[in-house]
Amino acid sequence: MGKLLLLDIDGTLMNSKKEIPQSAKDALIQARANGHELAIATGRGPFMIKRVLSELNIDTFITFNGQYVVNKGELIHKEALDTDTLSKIVEYAEQRDHPIVFLTDERMVSTIDYHPDIDEGIKSLKFPHPAMIEDFHLEHEVYQALLFCEEADQQQYHETFGNMEFVRWHRVSCDITPGGRSKASGIKHLIKATGHGIEDTIAFGDGLNDVQMMEIAGVSVAMGNGEEEVKQVATHVTDHVDNDGLAKAFKQLGLI
């Protein structure tokens, strides 16, 4: 059996222009031809990765940092955020003028009509500012939420909501997921379906939400542009995403 390759999107598959380098596309095609399976492992939601899935012909993915997992087009795991906990976070954040964006498998919705931090953060993903719908989280399954605050304000959320994870992905935003849930927990659900052992997994990433995935995977590769914490836990460090880092890693590991 070939390896199961778990690929982060932003900063790993996609370069700083939010494009997939041709070298990465060629490497993925060759790796698949060599018998390896490709899967996406991202903090994004399913509706946010449709173009990537189509472009790379991939139908297996871990999204929302492990909250929503699909194998070969079939949903195998989903876990929505607890509504009561989310309501408490929303109330706490509103008192501090920190907006929140809710994510379902199909769309994103804001707690506020417009906020420059939301605009900056979401725009970095090449998406428009989401529309506001009042009390959206009370009526829909929310798999992940984005809290918009700067790093200096983040610690109070860790202290107040110890049962939740707040993982920074942008200067003005962090992901909100349940404690103990991550891309790593998503991998555990996925390998049950694919039949791979954990030792057959190779994880590629660059961000703080990749750390637990790196720790659990059989082999892990941090991009040259990655956070220092990611590089420290990875078994390999490759070149910058803008300098064919992914393709170079595939060659170094003998996948192509």
> Count of DSSP helices?
10
What's the name of the CATH homologous superfamily of the largest domain? HAD superfamily/HAD-like
Instruction: Write out the strand line-up for the largest beta sheet, numbering strands in chain order.
Output: 5-4-3-2-1-11-12-13
CATH second-level architecture of the largest domain: 3-Layer(aba) Sandwich
What is the terminal-to-terminal distance?
Answer: 15 Å
Low-confidence stretches: none
CA-based shape = globular
The strand count comes to: 13
Q: Please state the CA-atom Rg, rounded to the nearest Å.
A: 18 Å
Largest sheet composition: 8 strands, mixed
Q: Might you state the CATH topology name of the largest domain?
A: Rossmann fold
| Order of secondary-structure elements | EHEHEEEHEEHHEHEEHEHEHEH
Characterization of the model:
The chain is of the alpha/beta class and 256 residues long. The protein has ten helices and 13 strands. It has an eight-stranded mixed beta sheet. It is globular and about 55 Å long. It starts with a strand and ends with a helix.
